[in-house]
Specification:
The protein is α/β, with parallel strands linked by helices and 336 residues long. It has helices at residues 10-22, 34-41, 67-76, 97-103, 115-161, 171-188, 202-209, 211-228, 253-270, 300-316; strands spanning 2-6, 28-31, 53-59, 85-90, 107-111, 192-199, 235-238, 243-249, 285-292, 322-324. Helix content is 49%, strand content 17%.
């Protein structure tokens, strides 16, 4: 345990030091002024201090910076603020103790110190410091545990809302998102678009290349689709086995059409071979688009059904294309 003794009297600090050494306290720092003490312990170092200090014995009357001023500075220090301070005072200077305790001192002894009293107060202060260290360590452990718990909770939350294979939002996350955004757009009477995407002849791909390659294909396609989204307010989710769905708040039919074209192009650029596809020698997608102005007469599930019906039309018309659904009812839409 490191103990700092600051006393301008050589006789006094030597006497105190000898008593502590006899009691088994050998790690002592003896200084004749506050300035020397600050230099010895690295008081002004900004990164870290050079001394692990456990106790300060500080003369109340010192040349230069006083013991009371130093006590105040020690107490306010980021590293030394929890180090106990025992004030050393002459019997005729006890009137300054109130100021010393107000400045952060924890105890005092008078000059010349009684052997038994000195050791009792030193040991008591060191027990206090030890308990403070234990408490600080426990607080740090609790802080670390709380941080880990928060990280685990975030990870669990992420797992509960994320598709494990593609990393996209899963159905649960999708359902929460579309419900929230539908109500928001309904209040604002802003356009709302849904895009359904299906990988063309994916079952044939799985049968021919195997399920492991099928999983890789799904991951690559999902990343390509995700890369086409430019706005943070949009959501792309895995809707089924090889189906994906994009929710586009505040997006009209023109914006949805442009994004659908981007989806087609991003997937084609992957150039994933598909020898079993009658549509193209590479992986392609079919897309259904629905765009509406939300109202009480319409539900989000109806809009999804509209996009799904448009997707069916795209697949029925030869795949590798997009079809826009009629807003509510109307003629069969032409591919784009």
């Amino acid at each position: 345990m490191s103990i700092l003794i600051v006393d301008d009297s050589l006789t006094s600090r030597t006497f105190i030091g000898d008593l502590l050494i006899e009691a088994g306290f050998t790690d002592l720092i003896l200084c004749n002024s506050v300035e020397e003490a600050y230099q010895s312990i690295g008081f002004y170092e900004t990164d870290e201090t050079s001394t692990d200090l456990d106790l300060i014995l500080l003369d109340i009357n010192l040349p230069g910076k006083s013991g009371i001023d130093s006590c105040r500075e020690f107490s306010a220090h980021a590293f030394f603020g929890e180090v106990p301070i025992i004030i050393i005072s002459g019997a005729d200077h006890l009137d300054g103790l109130d100021s010393a305790f107000a400045a952060g001192a924890t105890d005092y002894i008078t000059k010349p110190p009684n052997h038994t009293e000195l050791l009792a107060r030193v040991r008591s202060a060191l027990r206090l410091k030890k308990e403070m260290n234990r408490r600080k360590a426990r607080e740090m452990e609790l802080l670390i545990l709380n941080e880990r718990l928060a990280e685990m909770n975030l990870e669990l939350e992420k797992l509960s809302t994320t598709d494990s294979l593609t990393g996209l939002a899963n159905r649960r996350s999708f359902n929460e998102f579309i419900t929230r955004e539908w109500m928001r757009e309904q209040r604002g009477q802003k356009p709302f678009s849904v895009i359904m995407i299906d990988i063309d002849h994916f079952k044939r791909y799985n049968d021919y290349y195997g399920h492991l390659e099928g999983d890789v294909c799904l991951q690559k396609v999902s990343m390509a689709l995700q890369s086409a989204l430019c706005r943070g307010g949009d959501l792309l989710a895995r809707y089924g086995g090889e189906e994906f769905i994009a929710i586009l708040p505040d997006t009209d039919i023109n914006g949805a059409r442009e994004l659908a074209i981007a989806f087609h192009n991003r997937v084609k650029k992957l150039e994933i071979p598909h020898n079993e596809s009658p549509v193209a020698p590479i992986i392609t997608v079919s897309i259904g688009i629905a765009s509406v102005i939300p109202s009480r007469k319409l539900s989000s599930s109806q809009v999804i059904a509209m996009a799904d019906d448009a997707l069916y039309q795209a697949k029925d018309s030869g795949r590798n294309q997009s079809v826009i659904a009629a807003p509510v009812a109307g003629d069969r839409q032409t591919p784009i």
